Amino acid sequence: MTGRDGDDVLVLGGGVIGLACAHYLIRAGRQVRVIEQGVVGRGSSHGNCGTLTPSHALPLAAPGVIGQALRWMFRPDAPFYIRPRFDPTLWAWLLRFAAHCNARDCARATRAKADLLKASRSLIEALIVDEGVACEFQASGLTYVFREPSAWAAFQDRHAPLLTLGIDWQAWDAGRLAREEPVLRDGLAGGVHFPGDARLRPDRLVAELARLVRAGGGRIEERNKLRGFRREGDRIVEVDTERGPRRAGQIVFALGAWSPELARPLGLRLPIQPGKGYSITYTRPDPAPTRPLVLKEDSVCVTTWDSGFRLGSTMEFSGYDSRLDPLRLRALVRGAQRYLRSPEGPQHVEDWYGWRPMTWDDLPILGPAPGLRNFLLATGHGMLGVSLAAVTGHLIADFICGRSPIVDPTASRPERFVN
After folding, report:
1. Which terminus of the chain, N or C, has less C-beta within 10 A?
2. CA distances (Å), origin 252, targets 45, 249, 335, 410
3. If you write DSSP's letter for every residue of 171-218 in order, what string do you get?
4. What is the per-residue pLDDT across 182-202, written as a single tens digit (0 to 9) for each?
5. Residue 204 to residue 133: CA distance in whole angstroms
């Protein structure tokens, strides 16, 4: 239903999640306006590693993670780093995160993430083929690489349940790994290859989604900051922006790591912390890896496209700290040097950081907000915004259009955070 003197659907946020929601809503026949406070695709959608990863179905909240994080806490270059400081909100979040680091909750989250990731992987390839999306997509698979035999064996044990959830993987010994990826150094223990994963260039995916939204009649307003909401009973009747009020029948809230602050005036306490990730982009080296790699012990993701080469990852909990920490950037290069013969490209292009919206159970927040009939949440995707964009967009369209959901959304519904 179109809001009085307004839009049918207003999408708040022009990253990969917001644009995917807009696209699937337009495909469902809805009239859509997107509000973006900056420039489309310049947030966490811009500099991530661009992998589509059913392989990442196991949650960050898993047995053993807290112990490892504590051991790394005083190492500023550690892959998982919590900057020591007084932050009651962060420590409350970490306590809830720690409570989910058990076998039962890990298994539950793995099942839910596997369903979402598999559906999204299929949807995004169909979108790329059907709509001619030019984003350097390749159904390449992804390989985890290990220096230590014990880490290689432990990874296989931990990921055995994925086989029963329809996510295939293959163990590669050192010989097979060397044949598949000659760019790797000698002396590595082995690898685990996930043939169902893929890669794409994330900034180009976002640009193409914006193109599709505009081509479908959607409007995108950039550099228009959200100021607040006007609520009447159980409905949001107006969104206040720098360019004036905007009205809509339905509102989709897809503001990533900024979600907690901007949802608070509505009485919504979203349990999201900004998890800071880094990347370095180069021109493509020669030779280059043939598929995305995760250099496991150092937690470095390596992605190669025709147009470039990127080292990325790390998880830093330091609030909304906007410094580009050279120590953590150097850690990416140092990690790559332990595995790759050519750890850097010939020309440096960009250093980058972005904040991922991390929930304590490592599942997104998808669906109608409790107590608000026309306000839907599409946030909390953690490190998997690109991987989960398509299924999120489809699910939001399912909710708004009253269709049966493409996958069971129960584990991701906002109600799980309501006390």
Report:
1. C
2. 18, 10, 39, 18
3. EEEHHHHHHH-TTBPTT--EEEEETT-EE--HHHHHHHHHHHHHHTT-
4. 999 999 999 999 999 999 999
5. 9
